[in-house]
Write a structure and sequence with these properties.
single chain, 157 residues, mainly alpha, 6 helices, 0% strand
Length: 157
């Protein structure tokens, strides 16, 4: 595949992610920061975001599996994930976190394991779904960027 075809494929993927609402203009702002002096900037951000997200999702799963759930801790982790999602422009993940936090706040008011607990579990599953959908597309994006960089390196020799 030619360099131009790889770039077109990458641009098509990113454009589709914007059209689907997976990414917002924050990601576009980050793309503008990547230049020849920092060609791996976006890849590094994505890698950090995915690592942090995986850790947070594992913590949330553990917290909600406990007999007595500490909703303040749950809320703190969801808030952290919402912030990092917002920072990279992961719009669907951010919106799912907003919903999750609302259920946690409602549960804190209720105080018992009832309907809001199950809504929190469902909200966690929605966040996971949105995150893994995004991560799959990010993985493809990173693979394409690696192929483009390899192609460009060969051309410079």
């Amino acid at each position: 595949m030619s360099l131009m075809a790889l770039r077109e494929q990458l641009n098509g993927l990113v454009n589709s992610m914007f059209l689907e609402g997976l990414l917002d203009d924050q990601f576009e702002q980050l793309q503008m920061l990547q230049d020849e002096s920092s060609p791996g900037f976006i890849a590094e951000l994505i890698t950090l975001f995915c690592g942090d997200s995986e850790r947070i999702l594992a913590e949330l799963t553990k917290l909600l599996d406990q007999a007595v759930v500490d909703y303040q801790k749950v809320d703190a982790f969801v808030h952290q994930l919402k912030g990092s999602s917002s920072s990279v422009g992961a719009q669907h993940v951010k919106l799912a976190c907003v919903q999750f936090r609302q259920f946690c706040e409602e549960h804190n008011k209720e105080g018992l394991k009832g309907i809001y607990f199950f809504r929190c579990l469902r909200a966690l599953n929605v966040v996971k779904h949105e995150y893994y959908l995004l991560r799959g597309k990010f993985d493809t994006m990173l693979q394409l960027e690696q192929r483009i960089q390899a192609y460009e390196s060969k051309q410079q020799i």
